[in-house]
Specification:
- With 124 residues, the protein is mainly alpha-helical.
- The chain has a single domain, classed as Up-down Bundle (de novo design (two linked rop proteins)), CATH 1.20.1440.
- Helix 1 packs antiparallel against helix 2, helix 1 runs antiparallel to helix 4 and helix 3 runs antiparallel to helix 4.
- The two termini are 16 Å apart.
- This is Four helix bundle protein.
- Pfam families: 23S_rRNA_IVP.
Length: 124
Amino acid sequence: MSTVSHKDLDVWKKAIVLVSDVYRCTTAFPKEEVYSITSQIRRSAVSIPSNIAEGAARQTNKEFIQFLFIASGSCAELDTQLLIAKNLGYLNEDMYNGLLPKAEEIGKMINGLIKYRKSLIPSL
């Protein structure tokens, strides 16, 4: 059974900070991109802590792990979208180099949490 509060998880805390950073860095994106890459990047970033929180609120480790996998996928999606934004000239090198390591660290933390949670499930 999952009994952890998402607010106690370091990975959730870091993901919340990443969301704020992403919003700050995307405010200067071209207005014509507001419903395209800007929205995509923001939704990917928001999805990470949201899925961690939803998973932590579930009743079983198996359910928690399922939502952690979704959060991990959102991390990979964000990684790709940040590169696209940099290649389009919407993110400068400093912004990109500020966001990417945070996203990568969070991705590693999520994968570590998945591994740990899997170890708590008894083998049948």
